Amino acid sequence: MVKAYAALNAREDLKPYEYESKTLEKNEIRIKVHSCGICHSDISAIDNSWGKSKYPMIAGHEIIGEVIEIASNSSMHKIGDTVGLGWHSGYCNNCDYCDVGDHNFCSNTKKTVFSQFGGFAEEVVAEEESVIPIPPKLNLEDAGPLLCGGITVFTPIVEFGINEKHKVGVIGIGGLGHLAIQFYKALGCHVTAFTNSQDKNDFIKKMGADDVVSSTDQVTLKNLGAKFDLLISTVNVSLDWNLYLNIIKPRGRLHFVGAVLEPIKSSVFSLMAGRRSISGSPVGSPKNIKKMLNFCVEHNIKPIVEHFKFSDINKAIEKVRSNKVRFRAVLSW
């Protein structure tokens, strides 16, 4: 039997839960979970915020662990490998997107949380293509959040060819935003942090931000002028998006990686003035996760983490739910 922590109903404390270990199918790998980050998407799954949850719900998709069993026809990994698993636990591997390595665009992805039992457990099963080798020089204790939070803010770098010539603004300096600052600064970009938590200013600058600006001060935002090539929003609340569109350069974009549940309100004239764009993306492909992990090793980038034992999982979830964790929470057995 596999020991885990499960939500039995929405918005309730997780309870100890046991289930029978799954028999491996074609191309699957069994991973012994050493640690697992807590993402806001896990909270959404536990609470059924997206209306897709089924109970018992075993969340957790920022997994670091060890390969302990491999299906007979699997060849990408070997027993004892240190690996990671993020939002996706499998792909069709037979569509136009999978064929060119853009697995995250596959319409038949399996979700580590919603398609199966996730990483708040002693073990997890996934298809080999979704299992990511962890570079030896990466700090395993802190690496879990890179598998979701990290790749989410790294993906725009690859998709839009961001480089040292670009001016980037990061809206919201939490679990995603603090990694975005590190990534974009390591590229050589001029990085501005937008936050409504003024007590973080000195800390944010130590992480690499060149400037820190209030995310809700309309006068300050208007006075910035059209100076940004990319604004990346990591928040899950609505802001005055027209104000932000108006501080973007011609051909620049406002890009969403935070799951704002309300419709995005914007003026067409704000978009037409300078051919600005609004876009969004979730997580990323296995090839880009590997690229991101190597980038982290090269530039010594790591999440700022608070560590909890799995026995304290409800305490950790409550801290994440109330935005009192700086900046990511990681559970370990």
What structural category characterises the helix and strand content? Answer: alpha/beta
Shape: globular
Number of helices: 11
Cα Rg: 20 Å
Helix percentage: 25-40%
In CATH, the homologous superfamily of the largest domain goes by the name Medium-chain alcohol dehydrogenases, catalytic domain
The second-level CATH architecture of the largest domain is: Alpha-Beta Complex
- Sheet-strand content, in percent, reads 25-35%
Domains, number: 2
What is the helix/strand order?
EEEHEEEHEEEHHEHEHEHEHEHEHEHE
CATH fold-type name of the largest domain: Quinone Oxidoreductase, Chain A, domain 1
Largest sheet: 7 strands, mixed
Overall pLDDT: 95
Number-wise, the strands total 17
First-last Cα distance: 16 Å
What does this protein look like?
The mean pLDDT is 95. Helix 4 runs parallel beside helix 5. The two termini are 16 Å apart. The chain has eleven helices and 17 strands. It is globular and about 60 Å long. The protein is of the alpha/beta class. The strands form four sheets. Strands 3, 4, 5, 8, 9, 16 and 17 form a seven-stranded mixed β-sheet that branches. Strands 12-11-10-13-14-15 form a six-stranded parallel β-sheet, with helices on one face. The chain folds into two domains: 2-146 and 285-332, Quinone Oxidoreductase, Chain A, domain 1 (Alpha-Beta Complex); 150-280, Rossmann fold (3-Layer(aba) Sandwich), CATH 3.40.50.
